[in-house]
Fold this protein.
Amino acid sequence: MKSISTLVLMACLGMVACDGGGDPAREAPSDSLEDHTGPGTVQLPGQVTDPSGVSVSPDEGVAVLLYFWMPVSDHQETMDDLLYLASVTGPELMILPVQPDADSRNFAQTLVNQLDVSLPVYLADTAVLGAIGTGALPSSLLLRSDGSVSGATGFGGPARLLGTTVTGD
């Protein structure tokens, strides 16, 4: 199973390297989160567990940003996305960087820890990964409490979904 996961991730690397951005059909314009948070509760499309094995359940009125990527050492665009995700804070948004299996999650967490930021990496089941989309990585999915959903692929996807601008060095 571990070798199949690795093979699938490696196959996606070629697609990611050539990906200049997201699929316009998946990148719906995003208003600010303040306009979408409401009394509803986001229903995750499957099971997400935290590093200790506890199932994640968003609080009422909280939007969820799921982010799936191929963990690769020393890849600047990936590190930029992860740093951005770690910088996004607030009571109305839950950031969930996810991986498909324990080995990938552990390796991804090691890479995140090297950035000296607090950003746990979660495990996601196949239903969550299917909803996020694995055709091009990285892939992001924003689930709002009003039931609206927006997705983006490519580097910078989380910032595009949240309607923010990221400037690099």
Observations:
- Residues 1-38, 165-169 have pLDDT under 50 and may be disordered.
- The chain has five helices and six strands.
- The first helix runs from residue 2 to 18.
- The radius of gyration is 15 Å.
